[in-house]
Amino acid sequence: MTNSPTCETKRILIIDDDADFAESLAVTISRSRPFEIEVENHSQLARTTALRFRPDLMILDVMMDRLSGPDLYFLFQRDENLKRIPIVIISGIINQDGEDTSAVGLGFVKRVPRLSKPFALNHLLEAMDAQLEKASRKRAPRRRKKQPFPAIA
Predict the structure, then answer these.
(1) 53-68 as b/e, with b when 16 or more CB fall inside 10 Å?
(2) In what order do the strands lie in the sheet with 57-61?
(3) Which site among 28, 56, 87, 93 is 20 to 30 Å from 39 CA-CA?
């Protein structure tokens, strides 16, 4: 039994141009959960890495060189292979209430959990678990309600 929402090992892609932070985050998460984690530090390679690695969840920084977090978010949403992968946003431009404090404008992702750097590991893990659980419910086949047989008079 694991702490993750399901028993299978989940694949997590961390996209952050701060290599030291991203690697540290990967090690910290892997000590808490049995996730398979990959890190991508180059935003322009994030789509290719995501298509190759096929993550169950992505952790996405906002402020990066070349392509920003919002740029990547919209790029992923236009890709049939990536648009259903849940995302958790992390950034130093988000205040403790999850509100954007920059000109980047994170209003486009109201339904995506956002954490302000620095954040507590348990807050990140809770956001990850919630996103993974939500995604697994969407993928689960819907059971049809049984229709009662009409009464025979």
Answers:
(1) bebbbbbbbbebeebb
(2) 36-40, 11-15, 57-61, 87-91, 114-116
(3) 93
Residue with tokens 């701060």: 18
pTM value is 0.80
d(CA 87, CA 109): 10
In the predicted structure, residue 3 carries a pLDDT above the cut 60: no
Per-residue pLDDT tens digits for 65-119: 889 888 899 899 999 999 999 999 998 775 555 454 444 555 556 678 888 888 9
Q: 99: closest CA among 119, 118, 121, 114? A: 114
Q: For residue 125, which of 39, 37, 60, 32 has the smallest C-alpha distance?
A: 32
How is residue 108 annotated by DSSP? G
